[in-house]
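User: I'm preparing a small set of examples for a lab meeting where we compare how different chains pack in three dimensions. I only have the primary sequence for this one, and I'd like the structure in token form so I can line it up with the others. Please keep the answer compact; I'll paste it straight into my notes.
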Amino acid sequence: MAPLAKIEALPPPTQAEAASTRIADLEARGLITPEAAIGLDAVAARYAVAVTPTMLGLIDKEDPQDPIRAQFIPQARELDQTPHESADPIDDAAFSPLPGLVHRYEDRVLLKVVSACPVYCRFCFRREMVGPGGEALVGDHLDQALAYIRARPQIFEVILTGGDPFMLSPRRVRDLTQALAAMAHVKVLRWHTRVPVVAPERVSEDFVQALRTESVATWVAIHANHPREFTPAAQEAIGRMREAGISLVSQSVLLRGVNDRLEVLQELMRGFVALGVKPYYLHHPDLAPGTGHFRLPIAEGQELMRGLRRTLTGLAQPTYVLDVPGGAFKAPLDLPYVQESGAGLQLLDGTGHWHDYKG
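Assistant: Understood. Below is the structure token output for the 359-residue chain.
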């Protein structure tokens, strides 16, 4: 196995996956008008820009409200920051005993193994921390993080994030997987990624095999926000992981103008289930700078969740959550379905009616 200190630079992108990273590129493609491009260089100077060919191909250039466009194409209002927004909205820093490692909950840690992503979502809660040239977990810092995990037998699960950890090469994924699997107390590796939908060509057979090891359970949390993201190539990439025996769950963010309609969320969650991906979290957007235009009132999110409860199989139900500012925990935002009454309890059904329960 290669020395872990060598898990460093990312492999160069292939021609197929090279992303558009400049405002001028997006303007040349007709995705930004010359008028709108004025001032966007200031946005790109603060927050990284990258859109893969796969996502570029999904954008309807004739629709200024296109949900794929909204997720990846910069807007001038990203420089509008409200007083309650923060560069570190869930306070990772307060729970980081070492660079690149977050230990918020006793039995699991986050490893931010890379700072780069194939795309840069305009609503990202780590948007101040990720991008080309950003801090990655390499060299001595990686060795120190692994030593920290090795010394703490209470750590059951390691969550690999970033950036996007699927930006690592298969060799580096294999080295990291084997290093963590060699720790007897680590039983679960969970990879959080956007790659299977935004750059599915990276999820090769070699890459998938690098994720697997016999001594730990491998889980992959796939981030998608709109059903159009399930392209044929994305379906094939997800299928390769499923066929290899990797457990798959979903993550989505509830976004104004992207998926804030019941029929879109229904199609998204059904799409996950049809691909063998269990819906896991539907995140309320965090208070990241310049993302206010994506956030909708929590009451609207709760109403959408009531609609999902009413219309979808239990397999397709995500948990609607918000990371409490300050880094305390994830708070479920679903409305309570049980309440006390004078005669005992009442249970709320999917149509909004309460039923007496005596048990």
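A couple of notes for your slides: Residues 1-16 have pLDDT under 50 and may be disordered. The longest helix spans residues 298-311.

User: Perfect, thanks.
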